[in-house]
Amino acid sequence: MVNLLTGPKGSGKTQQMIELANKKAKECNGNVVFIKKTHRDTASVTFDIRTICMDDYTSITNIDEYIGFLYGMYSSNHDIENVFIDGILKHADISLDNMPEFTERLKKISAECGIDFYVSISAAADDLKDLNGEGVSFIK
To answer: Which element (helix H / strand E) includes 51?
Structure first.
């Protein structure tokens, strides 16, 4: 399943994602990964969540490389149950225009690997009208 958290910049999406990740880490039997752009605001993520800052991986510049990175994470740890991606529009070349493609690819990984994705986007849900809603949930 791909879960999307939408809203304008500064609306508290990051804090909501952190709280949800911390909750999932307590509930699940596997591992939780939290991916963000920078090292800022990582202190409130509980210690047992693997935090990844994409600024450390500057070679990942497009959707193909980003998807390969996600598959690589899973191949090294089959216990990953939840992946949180905060501020996706700041990662690689991901934009509102190619968000439908990116979401479809996340759905494929989710189905193949049994991972639930939680993705925050600085945009309104209406801006994602081209998304195929099957397998996608919008977090309120």
So the answer is: strand 50-53
